[in-house]
Amino acid sequence: MASQNPMQVSELILKKECEESWKQVNRNQAVLLSQPRHGPVGDSQNALAAISQMKARCLQGEIDAVKAKKVKVLPNDPVILESLLKEDLERNVSQLEECLSVVEGRRRELEDDLARQKELLSQHQDMNRALESRLREAEEGGNTSRPNEDSQIKILKRKQKKAGEIQTVLLKQIGDFVGNHFPLPNASKGRQAGQINYISLLEIIELLMNKGMDGDTDPYVSIHEAFWPPYIELLLRCDIASRHPQDASRIRLVPLHL
Questions:
Q1: What pTM does this model have?
Q2: E strands, the chain, where?
């Protein structure tokens, strides 16, 4: 037996136990049959048949329950039992190690995210202190800084005008790029009767930008039939837009500056 596989040894032991149980069942049945019978022979045979059918149903129910639960019968041999328990323990340890690896990876991600948030907080605090300092200087300066303020306003107006010109050029370039590389469906064939009048990709981006910059607390835009689905998929795949966590029919512009 020492040269045999532990599973084979377990099967042999279980087989012997089953044979002993079957012999005991036969002996019990023989004892029952040897008992004196009361009543007509036909009634006794019918009763035995009914009892046998009931036993068969009970056994079948137990078999179905065992199959459903997938219960493993453990052998009585302590060596084989120890081997099986060791395998089960090693499998559980391996699963727990995998789970631990996932948890540690998630912890590292959270630590990195926390470090980034702390850095952003420090930058915002520095900016806040600088703005407060400039505000105090402006309040202390009073009317003496009026000429300087006028010159600064003129400089800002010139910068604003130049920024507006640059924005116009960039919007035109973006419009040409989007129109050439991401045209609307059947744009060259013209709009047919019953066809949905989709809006361009540039118009969708402008809607998202305006919604995010108008100061509203809700930066999400509802998707309607004028939005061509491939445009929405493109914005989502490129991380330009993101869906609402609770309403997939609404999207917003991703805050790329954060």
A1: 0.37
A2: 221-222, 241-243, 250-253
